[in-house]
Amino acid sequence: MTTVFEILYDLAFELQSNPSFKELTRHHNPDKASVESRLRNGICQMLMMGESVDSKWGKTRIFCRNYVNRAQAVITPKQMLSLLSTVENLHPSEDERLAALANTAAATFEVRRKNELVLALKKFTSKEKIPSLNHGTYLEWIENRWIYWVNKQVHALESEELLSDLRVLYFNIKTKIPGMGLPLAANFFADMGATVFVKPDLHVTPIANMLTLSAGEVEAFKGLVKIVQIEREKLSRNSKFQWLNDQGGLFPRHLDRLIYMIGSDNFLLNSEQSKRHAPDRRQLIKDALVSGGMVSAKYHP
Known about the structure:
The protein is mainly alpha-helical. It has helices at residues 4-17, 32-44, 56-67, 77-90, 94-108, 114-125, 138-150, 159-170, 182-191, 204-212, 217-236, 242-245, 252-264, 278-291. The protein has 2 domains: 4-46 and 198-299, no CATH class; 56-191, no CATH class. Helix 1 (4-17) runs parallel beside helix 13, helix 8 crosses helix 9 (182-191) and helix 13 packs across helix 14 (278-291). The longest helix has 20 residues, at 217-236.
């Protein structure tokens, strides 16, 4: 029996290279080598493009850019990049940038829900020591958990432990970041290169729910982690995916990326999506997985 990842990889390849699917994608290319290269690069792009996690400011930049990478965001991604550039140009040191970020946002924007944005930035960059975060600041807690998760192996993953950290960001009353839900919280860790996380968004959740015979974002998150734990070793023995073994083997983020790229048609992972045929592409995913016999109770969390 094949794996979920193999079926979806083949579908993503066909979607881009097969003329019969040309109307469903902006990325049709008859050059199969180019298609394969683009697909592999997209799957293996773990850190947010153009960013670094080597400093608190680097992690804050990723937080900010991720915070507006959603529908109905308070400001646009372009406006957020402009805000970050302004802060960097005015303030040379990291401490100065962190201290100025929320106030600069408050002085720059006059938009609906501005307070939500300002409060989120203030909370994330605050120097306040929080008892529920091991008596550290938010950024100190983020740094500690990032180190923990980037070194975690797939076989040792516990979904509830992953979700416990995410609830700090989106659910727990004392620490919740305004305007943040489970998908954004999960994507923040994933965009920092923590490949054990997945983002249960509108493209990923229905597919994961179908595969795991479950419902909702939380169950989708758990289900994708379990699928990877079940299929990781089998996939590692397939010579076709040696390039993935070179990346350390299959991680949850790789499967998340693959589903997202097909559903969104965003194979370049540049925030540009083609929404018109998204339902058709998601139906292709479902049809391929059903035909491959992958809808099974064994994946149920």
